[in-house]
Amino acid sequence: MSTISWFEIPASDIDRAQKFYESILDMQMTNLDNTNLKMRVFPVEDMMQDVTGAIVQHQDFYHPSSSHGSLVYLNANPDVQLVLDRVEAAGGSILVPKTQISEQYGYMAVFMDTEGNRVALHSV
What's the whole-model pTM score? Predict the structure, then answer.
């Protein structure tokens, strides 16, 4: 059982954010917009068993931040560098390049997305 069950990444422009994440992670997100909240969910095989999250836009509740709040680590297997290589072309910037955590725990990196959030990557 994973400690994390869900995460949300704030967006000020949900369509731009969706394009960015689909581009760097080479996947398609699901639109779960409702009347009060815009939400695009990261793909997952089993929503009840696996960890996933969403980019979310709500004027009063979510605010992108480059220095505050939670730091989400997205799965970048098999290699963090493959994802980092797409970040700048998609409109983001690299804050921390691929860095080894340890032989046992693999690698990490941190980038700034198109919404101004700092987001991390992890691979083994």
Answer: 0.89
